[in-house]
Amino acid sequence: MIALLLTAGGLSVQAAQSVRPRSTDAPMMVYGAGRLSCGAWSASRKQPEGSDIRRHQFESWVAGFVTAYNWRGQEPGANGVRDVLASTDMDGAFGFIDKYCADDPLKTMLSAVIALVAQLDGEKRVGR
Question: What pTM was estimated for this model as a whole?
Answer without folding.
Answer: 0.73
